[in-house]
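so my prof wants the structure for this chain in the tokens format not the other one, which i didnt know existed until like an hour ago. anyway here's the sequence
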Amino acid sequence: MKPGNHVATLLNGNYANLVRMPWKDAVKIPTNLSFEIAASPPMVFTTAYVSIFDTARLEKGGRILVHAGAGGVGQAAIILSKYVGAGTFVTAGTEEKTALLIEKYGIQPDHIFSSSNLSFGSGILDMTKGKGVAVVLNSPASPLLQEGFNCLAQFGRFAEIGRRDLEINSSLGTDAFNRGSSFAHIDLLQLEQHKGDRIQRVMREIMRLFSNGHISADALYLIVNGVGGIGHSVCQRMAEHGAKILVVL
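here's what i got, hopefully its the right format
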């Protein structure tokens, strides 16, 4: 990189007109990508890539359960899973989110389960004839975490990106370990601080996939303080004018 390059960054801190960060947290934006598209990879795609590829080693023909599939990381994980040729199961919390997953990503209705109860566990085992999935990308807390862990196939890999159960030191039933399964927690902040080379490699690879057209995504719009009345109006207005992916904080 050199002065004048357009870059995307994994920013640890507040948004500002001028920011400073380690060079490993920034990646050059290919000339054929817009700023809006390039804003998506640093957080959601880096999290998804590190989780399902670097950590959980998802492969072609494998099966993955993506919790909160309509969220930012969930959609990135679906895009990457489809790119590698994996079978994808997802959970969603509303009819609107279910419709998004069907219409935008072509997820079959019988591959979408509710995120508000534990029925996804038996549903996935039924769909896989009792074998389970190779990878679980998890964000919800227990008891959904435990149910997802129970869905792992032999030698399955569980990638945890949530923090609730870790913060309260929840217990975990370990029966799935008898099948050679593994459990890993992905903390992008710790990776950024201690494994910057890994973050740099992943961001470069994601930009390459976007630039070459192997993966694509709609622009992602971040709405800060968007849960109040004005925020709802802003979200509705943006959706009416074509914004498809909104991240509301």
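also thought this was worth mentioning. The longest strand covers residues 152-160.
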